[in-house]
């Protein structure tokens, strides 16, 4: 396929995302007010507790078997968690450089790290990968097999990304938050959503699960390992790491997507359970069909809420222009370029196998816009909410061009 043909293939799913996002944005306008704060709150809870876990369970259970799990793990499937971890590490390193270059204020440094390290590993991959597979002139072979494998890769990406976001980004942004969050004000508007990366609201009871006692306040200066300039740099770093480890809220690792992912792997890999639930002759196949039906509603709901969230960016302008440009450069230039090098090196050393679709998904994980969950966490800690809205607005505004461009380049390299 020529470069232009690949560009058209890559453009179609991005346009789908743009259309649904625009609908969500329109529905959130004050004149329309269908996706107002209360509606987004309820829709987000449905996605978080029901629809998101449903799509993870159904996709993983239907595509993962014990034999495929063993063979794929030995060959290359194990590399996806490693690759996502590398995106977080590289993104954090680039964010640190950006902070130094732009002189980012301390209360926004956690936000910069979160936006640069965590990509939208949720709904975008679940839209883009199947849409690319369904194109008649797609580069990944049979459309049905491509879609089945692609949805499994995207679901695994979502599950692993959620674990990293809530175990790393959540705690990093919590460390850098300098404002005190009043837990008694606006309880109904504090938001957490990890699936489609669309920042919205959760109930106070779940908020208390996220924030352990004392987490709302910045630590005592005497406890702050980097407050003394007399300590050697390496000792300071060790102290900082120990302090972060002590403050981490490990409860967030075991959130609904994590539990759903484990359930999906168990159902798919344990043969007696799989034969009972999966397949045309399974006695309880109606349960799998019901869960799959719920899961199909995940993507449109997440994308609508994501579009509704972007409206906040039109109402905020506190963040500096250089910081926005810096985050765009990190996420859409340096990370995708480095991603090509990482995956090419992994292929050279036999870590990812020869499956071009799998390599495409791994590369695409470096070219995604920031996770909207970063905005959610900033709202939770009452630090940089307005700035985050602006960052999300502009990074997603230019994402259509860069996602199409990098998708085209990746397919061209792999074809």
State the secondary-structure class: mainly alpha
Largest sheet: none
N-to-C order of helices and strands: HHHHHHHHHHHHHHHHH
Question: What is the third-level CATH name, the topology?
Answer: Na+/H+ antiporter like fold
Judging by the overall fold, what is the CATH architecture? Up-down Bundle
Overall radius of gyration: 21 Å
Supply the number of structural domains.
1
List unreliable stretches of 5+ residues.
179-228
Strand content: under 5%
**Backbone shape:** globular
Q: How many strand segments?
A: 0
Helix content bin: over 70%
Distance between the termini: 8 Å
Can you tell me the CATH class?
Answer: Mainly Alpha
Structure annotation, total helices: 17
Mean pLDDT: 76
Transmembrane segments: 6-27, 47-70, 76-99, 111-132, 152-170, 252-273, 293-311, 323-345, 357-381, 393-413
Function: Involved in cellular auxin homeostasis by regulating auxin metabolism. Regulates intracellular auxin accumulation at the endoplasmic reticulum and thus auxin availability for nuclear auxin signaling.
Keywords: Auxin signaling pathway, Endoplasmic reticulum, Membrane, Transmembrane, Transmembrane helix, Transport
Membrane topology: Multi-pass membrane protein
Give a concise summary.
It is a multi-pass membrane protein. It is built from 17 helices and no strands.
